[in-house]
Specification:
alpha+beta; NADH Oxidase; 10 helices; binds flavin mononucleotide
Length: about 230
């Protein structure tokens, strides 16, 4: 088995792809069988997730329940990761005491809005994600060894896929009617020491969650046009 790129390690040439044999638990197999042509989601959903969704600094004084946080994870977990490695870990800070532990790590511009948000999630990743691959990727008996002896490859894989899962969190939150305020302005070393010293997770970014107050929004910033950001060959 060559090691290196994911293209090399995903499914070995000639191997039987046994994905069809993995069963989704009945209670989770809820996606309806829908025809290709009707798969596009409603315009209103596209607005809620992308076009009208904004990054919020200010949130209404409304709590976010355990049920909602569970529903959020139960959606985002279905977003794809390479070899199904699922390296992201999420620490939801909701209590006053938990928020106070975060305060010293926040940049000054992010401090007060984060302390006031109903929930702040630390989007982190597990550098030893490969210890779970025998369950998560049973298609290959040696999946763990692709990463366990190659720290650089494991680190890149954890960060890439953990970041993707952070993006899935934002999309899932918006789909559930929550608003998000993602932030990278904080001291990672302080957060890792305060929250993850004993289990080795690494912080990636923070995201405030709640029901946004539109009164806190400024004008929307532009995006690059298709021909500035994309090319079709
Ligand atoms: C990974 C990430 C890190 C960010 N870090 C910060 C931050 O530290 N402080 C802040 O005020 N905004 C931060 N932002 C917010 C962005 O500036 C904002 O999402 C962007 O301007 C788009 O705004 P819009 O969603 O309202 O169009 C961050 C956004 C992302 C996705």
């Amino acid at each position: 088995m060559p090691s290196g790129t994911m293209e090399e390690v995903q499914v070995p040439a000639g191997a039987v792809d046994e994905r069809a044999a993995i069963e989704v638990p009945a209670e989770e197999a809820s996606a309806p069988e829908i025809e290709e042509k009707s798969r596009a989601i409603e315009e209103a959903a596209l607005d809620a997730i992308f076009r009208a969704a904004r990054t919020h600094d200010k949130f209404r004084d409304e709590p976010v329940s355990d049920e909602t946080l569970n529903a959020l994870y139960d959606l985002l977990k279905w977003g794809p990761t390479s070899a199904n490695c699922s390296p992201a870990r999420f620490l939801f800070l909701r209590s006053r005491a938990a928020k106070e532990r975060l305060r010293p790590a926040l940049s000054s511009g992010n401090r007060e809005k984060t302390m006031a948000a109903p929930v702040t999630v630390i989007v982190a990743y597990e550098p030893r994600f490969y210890d779970r691959l025998s369950e998560l990727y049973p298609l290959s008996a040696d999946a763990r060894s692709w990463f366990s002896g190659n720290e650089a490859f494991a680190g890149e894989t954890a960060f890439r896929n953990g970041t993707l899962q952070g993006a899935y969190l934002i999309i899932a939150a918006r789909a559930l009617g929550l608003d998000c305020g993602p932030m990278s302005g904080f001291d990672k070393a302080k957060v890792d020491e305060e929250f993850f010293a004993y289990r080795g997770w690494k912080s990636n970014f923070l995201c405030n969650l709640g029901h946004g107050d539109p009164a806190g929004l400024g004008p929307r910033l532009p995006r690059l046009a298709f021909n500035e950001a994309c090319e079709i060959l």
